[in-house]
Amino acid sequence: MRKTLTKLLLSLSSFSGVLYFYIVGRQDIPFVSLHQLHINDGHTFLIRNLAYLIIFGIFAYITLIFTRLAFQTGETLVVDEEKPIESVAVPTYIGLFVIALSLGSMSQETSLVVLIILFAFWTRLEKIFYFNPIWLFFGYRFYEVKSASKNTYTLVTKRDRLKGKHDFDKLRRINNYTFLEF
Amino acid sequence: MIFAKIKGSKRQPPEHRVLFVNPESSNDFHFYLPPTISEKTKFNPEKKLDSHEWFYVELSPDQIGSMIQPYLINENSSADLNKAIESDYSVIEVVYRVIHSTIIFTKITDSFRIRNRILLKFHDLEQAKLIKEESSIEFSGKKDAYFDGNNRLYFRDFSKIRSMFPGIEEFYREATQSEKQEFLDNDLFDVEDIEPDQIGQRDSSRIAAILNDDTIGLRDGSNTTKILRAAQEFAELGIHVQSGRLIMKDKKDLHTILNLITSRYYISDITGKKMQSYGSAALDTTE
């Protein structure tokens, strides 16, 4: 139960960038919607949006703490090859942001249905690939790694510039294809 | 780390799963530690053990490779195994804990499996409650086998651990002098310079296993043609066939012939190459 809840929080946090752009893209939220920027006070707009971003940032940090509590450390992995995957994952994410922004022009009901469908797909996708761009700001790097047995995983770690063979012995298993070191 | 081996089937080889990542951090597994073995005796199927005694067998590097390595291979890379999920519980056949290359094994039989039971549970000062138990495994931590990290495998009941270690049948028993003589006197062999008492322990065990295995059909000669054909097919092994008999000049020939009879030489269906295996066991074909 604890793991299921944590996984849901992880998914929400990972999806929060899309939620943020959905909110910004809405036409009817004073001091937040991009569409109302020209009729609102610019400073309030900036402060409110910054507040949203900080809330999502804090939420992402809390999910890290929950992950530490819910997923045991101690998984081991011998890695032969590493490849940073931010360059692949971030553009995909930006594509989602654009979709989220464009949802603002739809009716609230339609856009919510699309958002829910997107989230459902997102959680399915996370069973094999996990990415949270906010963690990049906490110093985490995302690597596609190949184990000595030639299996491929997503590894999230603070270790920078990973190259060559490495042994990991304090990993947490988010799912069977994603491991987190912290 | 605590792992599980799950049963293979016709279509799928046995697989291993991660059960518990860091038992050192939990009090739950404090009882699942290497056994204290104060008295040990070399495996002898005729011997009855006292309650504190353990049998042991000494494994060759080849045997460690075929029997133990599959359990050790993921010690340093548990990520390469999937985590056990509920549907695995009905097919788990071994639970094992690896601690620095030593391994504690517990065999899981059907009697340990709990399938959706409803229990009547009593509480002090409260009325009884019905508790539904989901599929699970009763785990007392009983140790059925223990590998010491060097070359010794300890156990108490050979029949229980037999299915856990492919090839361990070789240790089952050695052939007696008369059985070795019977083997050498078989019409299939033309023996030149081998006496029963020159035959080593491993080959002797295999002779016993061959004589006990009716499907090999050495005693009744039912597979003679197949054995001769196999010897010709693997001519590069140097087994000579003359007048429908295998020439056994020395112990090396004996060893090669024993390998041949126990199907250690085969042609890979995939690569078409001639191969040699260092252990073999019939697959569990029950599903």
Along the chain, the helix and strand elements of chain B come as EEEEHEEEEEEEEEHHEHHEEHEE
Largest sheet of chain B: 9 strands, mixed
Report the count of strand segments of chain B.
18
Gyration radius of chain A, rounded: 18 Å
Oligomeric organization of the protein chains: heterodimer
- Work out the radius of gyration of chain B: 23 Å
What is the overall number of helices of chain B? 6
Arithmetic mean pLDDT of chain A? 84
Q: What do the pLDDT scores of chain B average to?
A: 86
Tell me the total number of β-strands of chain A. Answer: 5
Shape of chain B: elongated
Strand content of chain A: 15-25%
**Class per helix and strand makeup of chain B:** alpha+beta
Largest interface: A-B, 19 and 14 residues
- The helix content of chain B is 10-25%
Q: Provide the low-confidence segments of chain A as ranges.
A: none
Strand content of chain B: 25-35%
Overall geometric form of chain A: elongated
What does this structure look like?
Chain A is α+β, with helices and mostly antiparallel strands. Chain A has helices at residues 2-25, 42-70, 86-102, 108-125, 134-137; strands at 73-84, 141-147, 152-157, 166-175, 178-181. Chain A has a 5-stranded mixed beta barrel. The longest helix of chain A has 29 residues, at 42-70. Chain A starts with a helix and ends with a strand. In chain A, 51% of the residues lie in helices and 21% in strands. In chain A, strand 2 and strand 3 (152-157) form a beta hairpin. Chain A has one domain. In chain A, helix 1 (2-25) runs antiparallel to helix 2 (42-70). The two termini of chain B are 28 Å apart. In chain B, strand 17 and strand 18 form a beta hairpin. Chain B has a 9-stranded mixed beta sheet. In chain B, strands 14-16-15 form a 3-stranded mixed beta sheet. Chain B is elongated, with a radius of gyration of 23 Å. The mean pLDDT of chain B is 86. Chain B has 6 helices and 18 strands. By secondary structure, chain B is of the alpha+beta class. In chain B, helix 4 runs parallel beside helix 6 (251-261). At the A-B interface, strand 1 and strand 4 of A face strand 5 of B.
